Amino acid sequence: MADIQLPHGTGAPSAKPFNPWPVVIFIILSILAVLFLAPTVGVLFSSIKTTKEIAFGRLWDFPTSVYWGNFADILSNPSVQGYFVNTLLITVPATVISITLGILNGYVFAKLPFRGSGILFLVIISGMFFPPQVILIPLFRLFNGLHLIDTLWSVIFIHIAMGIPICTLLMRNFFATVPNALREAAILEGASEWQVLTKIALPLSLPALAVLVTLQFTWIWNDFLWPLIFIQSDEKRTVMLGIVNLKGQYSVAWGVQGALSLLASLPTLIVFLFFQKYFIKGMTMGAVKG
Amino acid sequence: MAELVLNNIKKSFGDIEVIKGVDLKVSHGEFMVFVGPSGCGKSTMLRMISGLESVTEGSIHIDGADVTHEAPSKRQLAMVFQSYALFPHMTVEQNIGFGLKLAKLPKKEIEEKVAEVARVLKITDLLPRTPRQLSGGQRQRVAIGRSIIRHPKIFLFDEPLSNLDAALRVQMRLEILRLHTRLKTTMVYVTHDQVEAMTLADRIVVFNHGKIEQSGPPIELYNHPANIFVAGFIGAPAMNLIATTLSTDKQGTYIDLDGLRLPFNLKANAVDKMSVTFGIRSEHLEVCTNDSPDFQAQVEIIEDLGSESLLYLQTNFSTEPLTVRVSPENDYRTGQKIGIQVDKSKMHIFDTETGRNMS
Prior knowledge:
Largest interface: A-B, 21 and 28 residues
CATH superfamily of chain A: MetI-like
Number of strands of chain A: 0
Distance between the termini of chain A: 40 Å
Helix content of chain A: over 70%
Shape of chain B: elongated
Number of helices of chain A: 13
Number of strands of chain B: 20
CATH architecture of chain A: Orthogonal Bundle
Number of helices of chain B: 8
Oligomer: heterodimer
CATH architecture of the largest domain in chain B: 3-Layer(aba) Sandwich
Number of domains of chain B: 2
Strand content of chain B: 25-35%
Strand content of chain A: under 5%
Radius of gyration of chain B: 25 Å
Largest sheet of chain B: 6 strands, mixed
Largest sheet of chain A: none
Distance between the termini of chain B: 38 Å
Number of domains of chain A: 1
CATH topology of chain A: MetI-like fold
């Protein structure tokens, strides 16, 4: 019973039975990784190949030379530049406003509850459970009456409204973990409720904010449905509509679409990489007691 | 320095009344300790003084001014929390200077004041650290630093030592006392630890069920408890309390403990055969060396505490064991029969029904 096992088993072979699970898990994860990455690789390949190559069915062949023509086409196309500007004009204000409202709602629900606030919170959260398809037609009629159809405002408004429930839920739950004693200590030090929020609660909630910014930005940037419904003219189109719009009347411009898809995913990638460090920073921060 | 006056304070949460009318005056520079069991309302009382909790009825005055409906920040109080409540995302320096920064003091002045406070509390080395990198005692010192920097009129302490280990608690207790001696600021301190209350307080207020049971200097509470609750709560080990009945005859009032007649001169009106509780502290019972003890008892348990020993004795007249303090150099054994003498000048008689001290 007193056998001493040397590390890396330099002595007699150990009697430990072979454990197949790490290998099985590794294989499953590898297959999943390939499945998830395949479309991205396909898009990447299509963006650096000529339409002729793709038409001959050589999309999945490893590229022997890189064709930059698709990117050149995209970057010199004035419509594409417009698509990017439009998408930014929708995504940035919608993200900022929905998160700001979520922060204010979340703080009140977490730290300043009032009679009936629990019910009100549930009402706001229930907004998450309506699929877009259900509210599509009434919204179209409403926006039509307000003359908002074919404006960027329509998409901004809808994304703010759709973002409030998730932003409120996430911020409320995060603020709830900020100890009340911190708020009370700050108030006794002379802080107003606004200062408690901006100087104590928000800095402690950077991880939640980082998650929210990434989620909202990606979701709004990548949205296809709402611009498709509410935007009609080419000069107001977003990037996602633009990708579809690039296909020719009689042929499919795979290469150009692939190049625009790659460029269109860059902003979300940048947002993710930028906020990623706050995820880690937030997790290592101490609470009231260590 | 300030005077704090509480006028008939009441507090209800819904239908439950947790503070049932408290009147109290805390003088300039006094160290007042609120003590009582969990849920007695002492912390709620402190939070009402701070303004973090609203007052249902009554009024609070600081230096003559009615602050009952004043915002917490306007009351010029500082509070030290049990959980320290340091801001985890700020350094020690930023934590201590937080209030001054909110008051928009010049940066240079904040730095100077923080440095001064840090020097006084011997935490200068810790200034660049974050609370996470500090031990419990250091955190509490930073929390105290944050509260003294603004020169508040009154300090409020909400069980500040409860999260510390025993040795550190004793050390911090001394530091808080030193702080009070130097600052001479009015302090209100909440604790459930009666030793902390005895050692720190100029005056103790004993709370129970949302009411003040008794208030006074520690020794007065120890020697003259107003009722059974205070008698049992103040002092360690707790006072020996024995249920019995009062008797009266021509010679006066007395209780009879298994044949032992203990006479009393009662201040309150005594009724023959009324239920009373006899109270005597462990140091007022003495193991008898001569052969005429007041009563006989059997040693059940011996606790050696180093500086003294406690004997737990079985007697014929009490279901609970009696505690007796003896010198640590003793040779008592469990099961041994010993004679006990009662110090007749230190006896208490409480009315069992009302709890009131009748002696």
